[in-house]
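pinning this so it doesn't scroll away 📌
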Amino acid sequence: MKITELIPDKKVVWHMLENYFNCTEDKSEWKGTKITFEIVKKSDKTEIHFTHLGLVPECECFDICSNAWGTNIDRSLKNLMTTGKGMPTRR
């Protein structure tokens, strides 16, 4: 991944230069996609708007990847922000 846009406290965009999946026929399905985190302050709270541009229902990994992103954003990132400890994927 390469950071292609960075606005501190506002936005981060990752461009997927390469990837390898061992669970899909197209091993590089994410190559060329963009992952965007937009940070919005609302009163005393912070919202994160997450988008994976290029991850569409036609992608072989769409269901698995959508669920995984949900877990990473809703649980791991939230835990990291609120407790200082996320839940990184173990290899």
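📌 and the second one:
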Amino acid sequence: MSRFAAVIAGVFRRYATWLVAISWKRFILLSVLLLIIAGVLSEIPPFTWPIMETAPKVSRLHTPSGDVDITIDEQGVQIKRKRQEDPGAAASLGQEIRREIIDEIKAERESSHLVRLGDFLPQLAFLFIVVSTAIKIAYAGRATAEARATEAQKTAEAESLRRQVVEARMAAMQAQVEPHFLFNTLASIDHLIEVDPPRASRMQKNLIALLRASMPAMRESAATLGRELQVVHPYLEILKVRMEDRLQAEISVAEGLYSADFPPMMLQSLVENAIKHGLEPKPEGGALRVDAEVAHGKLVVSVADTGVGFGRAATAGTGTGLSSIRERLKLIYGPQAELRIAGNSPAGTRVTVVVPYKTA
């Protein structure tokens, strides 16, 4: 029984899938054709059969003379005479009985129910079309939902893959920057140990603080603005020692925003871009400012410098880094985040990251 039910369910699913696959125009055409075929078949005589009454029927006939009772039932024809007749009336009585039996048989045939199967074909065809329409509508919605779910899953997988690629690219860029920065800092410390031990000690302490803050952040997929500032602050202190008076840095972020979510290593990348492509190429150096605020439910973090400006910085290669940051923001937050690049007054560039404001 279960196997038969499974076969029926399989046939039903295949039929429903076929209904969804065909167009409504083709479905309507097939429905009209089915109604026409049902109408033609309903007029064909072979599609009839007699349905006799199943209950036993007993008929009693009375001759005009009233002296003979004729009973017709499932046992046959029974004749009973009420009184004796003369021999001359036997022949006329036989003919009279014969006529009565023939009339009764005709009446039985007329009273039997003849049902034409063809009479029901148009109704059955119409019912089949109505049921098929309901199945097509129901399964079309289901098929659409399944297709959307599959497409959404594919899109999510593609976005996840793209995010992994971007994260790997950012990690590769970070891996390229960190050794270069680390080697230069160690070389500066080695030089300052001989000429200025206090500065060397200060740089060494900031390097330790930088490594202590940046190492966990590089392994995490989420971070806070406070954690990012723990990386940026010693980084700027180290560069102040190296660039001396050519760099003036200021961080203006309220402590209440330290718990706000912010992508890891992104703020440091913005600061590195500002110094490497904005301030270092400028002989007299300049100032760098990091600030943050909450506006319209968004966290707005800006890195502004008074360097050579974005036009010249873009030719130096910072455009690639900012493009990677923009792509990373899109993958993490979608349309809810943006990267703004504008000129700074009186000179330089202001890069602003806008992300949804959430606290950890």
